[in-house]
Amino acid sequence: MSIPMSSPKPSRREQWKRTTQLVSILLRIYALTWQQARWGLLGTAVCRLMLALIPLVNMYLVTHLVNAVTEVITAGAELNTVLIILGMQTGLSIASAAIRSLEQMIMAALKLRIQAYIEEKMAEKSTRLPLVYFDRSDYFDSFHRAMGSQHSLILFDNSFMIIQSSITVIGYFTIVVSFHWLLAVGLLIFVIPSLVVNMRIGEQRFMQMINQTAIARRVSYLYNLLIGREAAKEIRLFGLSSHLIDQWRTSFMLNAKQKLKLERKGIAMNWGVDSFNNIVSSSLIIGLAWLGTKGRLSIGQYVALTEAFNSVNSQLMSISNNLSFMYQNVLYAQELFTFLDTPEEHSQQSAHALPLAKPLRQGIDIRDLSFQYPNQPFPTLHQVNLHIPPGCKIAIVGDNGAGKSTLAKCILGLYSASEGSVEYDGVNILDLDPAELRKRVTAVFQDFVRFQSTVRDNIGFGALDRLSDNSWLEVAASKSGADEIIESLPMQFDTMLGPMFDGGRELSQGQWQKIAISRAYFRDAELVVLDEPTASMDPMTEAAIFENFLQIAEGKTTLLISHRLGICKAVDLIIVMKHGRIVEQGTHEQLLRLGGEYEQMYQIQSKWYDSETAAV
Ligand SMILES: Nc1ncnc2c1ncn2[C@@H]1O[C@H](COP(=O)(O)OP(=O)(O)OP(=O)(O)O)[C@@H](O)[C@H]1O
User: In what order do the strands lie in the sheet with 419-424?
Assistant: First the structure.
């Protein structure tokens, strides 16, 4: 879908291909607008048609008015005709203003409708894309460009303007041609230079937008960092404000200078076009005066034609501007459609997703699984093999960066294997319906979300269909120990959490964690993944959570990622990971006997706990 723009001199074939692509984008926009707002579109078309005819009627009235006024002055005729024509002109102006207002109202509604539709589609698309896209900078570039291209869809407005102006101009041409064909040729000369200049500038603006996307994103990233909550503490603590503002200013100015250069070029070129048009316009008026000397024009016709020239000039400028805007908007719209056409998650496109037994019979098998992040030079997981029987409790341990969280995300189906497979009951995860799979799994991640919303939402988002079921909410809250926190809140489950909105109660890190764990429990899933859920909790709370966890995990397949090895004694299987591989697996006793990585980690931690106890 993306149109190659970099080659300075495209071949004829490339030009043809590019033109057909642009036309197909244009047709797609028309189809979309028609589908979304056909009555608005029809209403606008009718208004624009009437507005196109009004100047022609006015020209007719001006001719008669000037002639009638001349009669009054030179031959002492009655004022009646003048008054009647003036009355008609006033009526025409009022009608014209009313139609214009109506058209503006329809257009405002139409634009909002299209904007809502596009924003919804973009949000839908973002949530349906595979998670791995969010690790790619080109995805963010594409999203940023698509966001900035939304306005381009109102190019139907440009088309209407062009049609409206064209009808008026054709009317004027028909009248002008009846006086002398050379006058009509002169009128045509107006349009060509301004069209060429505007299209060139439009294309350069678009290319600039493409080239500046990455840096424009950095500018907005730095700005949001400066004004946002996330970095507020550290900016103050480390005194980063001036440094970050300097960085932001440098990036901003880099973009601004390039933009300014192009604007200057555009303004200078338009000045050239304006001067040229003034010369053409003066020549035409001289031509009119010459026709007058030949006795082929009345004063009224002379005045009306001069007005017509000025009007045609502005109408032709409007056509040329709208054509170039249309061209520019089609180029932008291409970015939007490129984003909207990005392929989604595997099975969402397939109607042949395979069913899954409930509960699982054979469990989960990971076969020769390798996974590489798009922005990493080497795979993060190498040839991982693991069998997880149904109902088995597994702890995954290992150094920082060993690949524990990545493995969990592959098992949850959030990342697709680069090589090998994850199978549920022998069915490749890629052949399962993602929506169906997600109903069967639940997780708490290290970087869980703090929804700036009610407690009910924060827990209930785990299973939307039970959002208003208080008894389920209470059970989920008590399992994680969040019930005590909720009890102390002014409106219990309906209390707003987080500082972002009025009346929101901020919680401590550990309290938020309990809420996030409740959310995971709220979904009654077969596979529960807890990725370091207790990192911010005090040891007493941690012990309680683990105890609870094991109790409620009875019968469920559970995967626990933790650096604290205390829990490992109570699980069925411990997996030790190092540099993206499983290096050891077994029970606590088996691994201690093995005397390998696990035993070393365990000894270090027990010494640490022992010395803590000794110190106390
Ligand atoms: N979103 C990402 N994009 C690129 N690389 C990533 C991403 N997330 C993790 N990695 C890389 O993958 C490797 C494994 O990360 P992972 O988070 O799976 O490790 P972990 O064992 O869970 O670590 P920790 O104990 O610190 O949480 C790391 O070297 C990291 O650099």
Answer: 381-388, 364-371, 419-424, 427-428
pLDDT digits (tens, 9 = 90+) for 241-299: 888 999 999 989 988 888 888 889 888 887 887 788 788 778 877 887 887 788 777 88
Does a structural domain hold residue 280? yes
Q: Which of left, alpha, beta for 433 (phi over 0: left; psi -120 to 50: alpha)?
A: beta
Q: Please report where in the chains the tokens 């495209």 appear, as a residue.
A: 10
Q: Do residues 566 and 554 touch, judged by C-beta distance below 8 A?
A: no
Kindly give the interhelix angle for 12-75 and 299-340, rounded to the nearest 10 degrees: 150
375 lines ligand 1 (CB under 6 A): yes
CATH number of the domain within which 31 lies: 1.20.1560.10
Q: Name the E strands within 473-533.
A: 527-531
- In angstroms, the Cα distances linking 151 to 3, 206, 329, 403 are 19, 13, 8, 42
| Domain span holding position 272 | 16-209+268-340
**Model ipTM value:** 0.97
Say if 486 falls within a structural domain.
yes
- The domain boundary residue, chosen from 284, 305, 340: 340
Q: Which atom of ligand 1 is nearest to the CA of 402?
A: 21
Alpha helix (H) ranges present in 434-494? 434-439, 455-460, 470-480, 483-487
For residue 398 and ligand 1, the question of a CB distance below 6 A is answered with yes
Q: Would you say the CB of residue 311 lies under 6 angstroms from ligand 1?
A: no
Residue 340 and residue 122 in contact, taking contact as beta carbons nearer than 8 Å: yes
The two tokens of residue 348 are 């969402």
With a 6 Å cutoff on the Cβ, whether 55 touches ligand 1 is no
Would you say residue 426 lies in a domain?
no
Interval between CA 579 and ligand 1 midpoint (Å): 10
Query: Taking 50 as the threshold, does the pLDDT of residue 415 lie above it?
Result: yes
What angle is formed at CA 262 by the lines to CA 257 and CA 266, rounded to 5 degrees? 145
Q: Which of 48, 145, 60, 157 minimizes the C-alpha distance to 103?
A: 48
Residue 427 within a domain: no
Residue type, 506: E
